[in-house]
Amino acid sequence: MQVSVESTSALERRMTVGVSVERIETEVNKRLQQTARRAKVPGFRPGKVPMSVIRQRYEDAARQEALGDLIQATFYEAVVEQKLNPVGSPAVEPKSFEKGKDLEYVATFEVFPEFEVGGFDGIAIERLQAEVADADLDNMLDILRKQNTRFEAAERAAENGDQLTIDFVGKIDGEAFAGGSAKGTQLVLGSGRMIPGFEDALVGVKAGEERVITPTFPEDYQNLDLAGKTAEFTVSVSAVAAPQLPELNDDFFALFGVKEGGLEGFRAEVRKNMERELRQAIKSKVKNQVMEGLLAANPVEVPKALIGNEVNRLRVQAVQQFGGNIKPDQLPAELFEEQAKRRVVLGLIVAEVVKQFDLKPDDARVREMIQEMASAYQEPEQVVAWYYKNDQQMNEVRSVVLEEQVVDTVLQKANVTDKSVSYEEAVKPVEAPQAA
């Protein structure tokens, strides 16, 4: 087998492969012999058909099959011989394809980039330090109570925070408009659900009252036909209900799966959940900084084939997330290319760190992660058992643990400073980073 390789760009290779006629004929004859054992030809017993007849009937098909298999086999033999790491399938162009002659073809393909990850000491990491204070816990209990607010009929004028049940008809210049009318709508005053001025104008109404209000649509309103226009709404109020926060009692605690221990038991359970959320938030922010630092310190040229594959995955995810009748390939590739490139580059860098430092998923950390995830459920032992019986889920956990070990490896070499912050600041989401 003759092989020559030409670099047509940083990652593209053009490989010419020559296969001897002897190897071709050996493969063709092998297939003809296999065919002869099972061929059914009128006038001959099975397995007794002369090879001359077999050749006449089946040689063309056997040759096509042999050539296809030889191209596939010799391509992989050649890339191993040349120590190449191809991305995806090659584009194959036959140069010499005549019977009785050597086969020569050209395979064009991309290769994975070869690089070493470095620049660790130039990566600056700010690692947050925080704890769950009693005030944070009290605030969380208030949030949980507000999330379970009940509304009860109130025989008084409406205040901010009250829930109104209303019918309304909206008009602009005396004409009704699409989406401007509704019946039986429940609206919490001060929620900001309606356009500016709508809810404010209903403060003070009572059940059974009708009020005409004239709010103005914002200039940047999504419906350009309504943007900046003043509308007249006739609003009929059928009910006013005041918010009632639930008491911190056993019935309330049971909503969250806490059936014993009273208030102290409930506070302990909420604190445990907050501490878990805090650990995850701090870990996530450190990981984001590490990944950003690795990207900045290690510019990597990416194979187009990998970006294309990632674009297709993102298309499928978008369709699954947002639904509709659109097919993934109908979504423009440009919408996903930057995100796809970023993900591919990070994947290559992380894989190279794993390789450079010979990292393997730590079994103890895998189990610890599964136990922490399971602790959020009422039957944690069953959740742990489920993970260990599910190979796909276990592989996903191992991948996450391996990424954490990559982060730890970088932290040992990076410039890390600790910063004390409040619980609220530590768990506050950060804006998504721009695509690389």
UniProtKB/TrEMBL annotation:
The keyword Nucleotide-binding is assigned to this record: no
Domain PPIase FKBP-type residue range list: 161-243
EC number: 5.2.1.8
Enzyme class: isomerase
Subcellular location(s) of the protein: Cytoplasm
Gene3D superfamilies attached to this UniProt entry: 3.10.50.40, Trigger factor ribosome-binding domain (3.30.70.1050), Trigger factor, C-terminal domain (1.10.3120.10)
Chemical reaction(s) catalysed: [protein]-peptidylproline (omega=180) = [protein]-peptidylproline (omega=0)
Any coiled-coil regions, as ranges: none
Keywords linked to the UniProt accession: Cell cycle, Cell division, Chaperone, Cytoplasm, Isomerase, Rotamase
Pfam family, one: Trigger_N
Family assignment from sequence similarity: Belongs to the FKBP-type PPIase family. Tig subfamily.
Entries under HAMAP family matching the protein: Trigger_factor_Tig
Biological role: Involved in protein export. Acts as a chaperone by maintaining the newly synthesized protein in an open conformation. Functions as a peptidyl-prolyl cis-trans isomerase.
Domain notes: Consists of 3 domains; the N-terminus binds the ribosome, the middle domain has PPIase activity, while the C-terminus has intrinsic chaperone activity on its own.
Protein name: Trigger factor
Species this protein is from: Pseudomonas cuatrocienegasensis
Gene: tig
